[in-house]
Amino acid sequence: MQHIVEALKDKYLYQDQVIKSTNNIPEFQIFFNDHVTNDFNTLFRSLPIDRSYYAFGAPGSFHDRLFPSRSIHFAHSSSAIHWLSKIPKELLDKKSPAWNKGLIHYVGASNIEVVNAYVAQFEKDMEMFFKARAEKIVTGGMMVFISPFSCYIRLMGFFGSTLMDLMNEGKLDESLVDSFNLPMYFPSPQDMTKVVEKNGCFSIEMMELMINLRTSLEGLLINHFGSKIAEEACARTILKSEEISAWMKVNYEKPSILFAALKNK
């Protein structure tokens, strides 16, 4: 947000030079959003001391409305929209065609019903997301987001194989692994274009794939398996470094971040 505010200030300064005016730079008010369980105190302590904006916290799910109508000019979502609002219920139903036994994600699923369940939940969530953003962003306002892409999908497979190793060694109950599914869907540009066009509230100003690599799963593992298993699972996955390194040497230049800039109609 510091970079975004500085870029906007530079634009206003340039406009002032062109039209020979002064004091045209507005004040900036930034709302940081996360779930109510987030440690907002840590967030506020990490803010730059010399920041040129006023900071506020807005607890709540980003899938819902958070602000009054037409109150936001610019929205930025950083590595968040790939998180689903919930696990598709079909994945946990043993009688469902989408029963995801032995897997923690749609990664490696031979059953198309598993993938379809994730896609359906993603599309429902994004409809809520875009509807909420369209109501709070001013007409002509912008929304920019980045979301993990394909390379992250392979990393989910590495974590899944580690949990299966622990299960085969008798350290984890099979039913516990079967009941764990990652609430993530990594959209492709085609996926994102489809949900934006279906919603109809935004126009796509730019969409491209970028290169980056970052992941954090420890919190999910602790919640489901406990801290001891989570710690061992992370440690064991690191031990697969040769396999991961070999994969990364082949894939490190492949795009891993989806970038999109949308304008509210």
UniProtKB/TrEMBL annotation:
It holds the Pfam family Methyltransf_7. InterPro entries: MeTrfase_7, SAM-dependent_MTases_sf. Gene3D superfamilies: Vaccinia Virus protein VP39. GO terms for molecular function: methyltransferase activity. Belongs to the methyltransferase superfamily. Type-7 methyltransferase family. This is S-adenosylmethionine-dependent methyltransferase.
